[in-house]
Every structure is written in C-alpha cells, then in structure tokens.
Amino acid sequence: MIAYKRVLLKLSGEALMGEDAYGINRTVMQRIVTEIGEIKQLGVEIAIVIGGGNIFRGMRAADDGIERVTADYMGMLATVMNALALRDVMKQNGLAPRIQSALNIDQVVEPYIRGKAINYLKEGKVLIFAAGTGNPFFTTDTAAALRGMEMDVDIMLKATKVDGIYTSDPKINPSATRFDRLTFDEAITRNLQVMDATALTLCRDQKLPLNVFSIFKVGALKSIVVGENEGTLVTV
What is the domain range of residue 13? Predict the structure, then answer.
C-alpha cells in the first residue's frame, strides 16, 4: 500500500557526484535509478526536478566575475546535461523517461508543457524537468516547488546527502540533532537551510508537504512512499 500516488523528487546535481569532486558518478546514478524503478513498480507516478551543481553553479560563478544572469543560464544548461544522462540510464533500466525543459532547446529536449507533462505521468512515464524555472535568480528548489504544485503531486521529496533536517550542519557540529517533523514556519524562522525561503514559502502557502531524506540511504525513497518514518517531514 502506497502513501503517495504522485511525487516530485528534487534531485541535486551534487547527489550525482557521489564521493567524486565533480561530474556524474555512474555507479551512484545507477543506484538512484534502481530506487526510482522500485517505487515505480509500486504504482507511484514520479516527476523529477534535477539540479546542475555537479557541473556548474551559477551563484559561485557570479562571485568569480561572471554576470549573474549569464551564470544562472549556464547553470540551467548544466541541469539539461544531467537530465540527458539520467534519461539514458533510465532507458537502460527499462523505464520510460521523458524530459521537459524550461528553456527551449528543441533539438535536444522538448519544452515544458503542463498538460503534456501530466499526461506523461498518467501514462506511467518518469518525467524529468530540466532548466529550473527557465528564469535567472531562481533556484532549482524553487523550480521543484513550482513544478510540484503544477503537477498536483502529493508530496515533494528532497534528496540530499544527509538523512533529514538538523538543528545545524551535522558535518560541522557532531552534536546536531535531527528533526522528525517540522512546520514550514519553524524551518523558515530557524533558517535551517533546508531549501531557499521562496521554495519553502511556496510549499507552505499551497500546503504541499516536504520530506527531506538521504538519497544515499538504500531503501529510503521506498520507505517514504509506503508511509514509513524516514528523514524529516515538513508540513503546515
């Protein structure tokens, strides 16, 4: 029995690196695709928003002297590259992926069209959203919140390198403690760096629950969709 029929998975570019310094770790991507395939077999409809930080990060480049708007567009193109790689591995694993991009690159991927995207989900295809919102100054977290609402998903799942939301960065502070549950207002007020404030506010206002979990914990994704306590659940 599944707890969520349709989910939006926010997959960061950094998650695709594994322990590598940059780029895509094929072993890590294969394992992620395997886990996605497992919940697909349960009947879950899956949309994915993918980041590009493993290839290019716009804000960091802007700090190095590239104009922010230009840097953000470069970051969007990095997400398209990740989407293409993810699609390829999914195809090899028997899934039926489709990519839609917020930037028009017709020779590479099809543009984002909401009605078509919803039909893909109903047809059982795994939908990958690339290029964020298509606008500079907005993160892929915000794109995930936006697409989640547009796709009318039951929950947004943010895959990270840690197993939930902590009082502070557990890599820096060993005594940091993990929250099992939080409200959006608490996450925003405490500035817990879960997602950017725009994304959190969108989810709060539209009452879209968020679960933050570790993509590196085997079986965590499946645990969430069957209703088990995994990661940190953020609700209104």
Answer: 6-235
